[in-house]
Design a protein that fits this description.
This protein is mostly helical and 93 residues long. It has one domain. The protein is 74% helix and 0% strand. Helix 1 packs antiparallel against helix 2 and helix 1 crosses helix 3. The protein is elongated.
């Protein structure tokens, strides 16, 4: 720690933060796309809409609370949600 009580972080820490943020952005984007498509249908599936809205809000909150000093959380996001994003992108959703 430095004398002004701020913890220092490395360039790798910052890269981890940005990676986690971009993964969450991707997952938010998929939910927004799905919601738009579903809401345009003649008979939208309200269950799917509710689920995707909830997931979108969850990802927005996770993104809002990202902290470069919480590397364990960033690693978890990168592993767990990164795998989901890769799967969605590979399927072309």
């Amino acid at each position: 720690m430095t004398s002004n009580n701020y913890q220092e972080w490395t360039q790798d820490d910052c890269v981890n933060l940005e990676s986690a943020r971009e993964i969450l952005n991707g997952l938010i984007g998929f939910r927004v796309k799905w919601l738009r498509t579903e809401k345009q249908k003649n008979q939208p599936n309200k269950t799917s809409i509710t689920q995707w809205e909830t997931e979108k809000v969850t990802f927005l909150e996770k993104r809002r609370h990202l902290n470069v000093l919480e590397q364990d959380n960033l690693s978890k996001i990168r592993v767990v949600y990164g795998a989901e994003l890769k799967r969605l992108m590979a399927c072309g959703y």
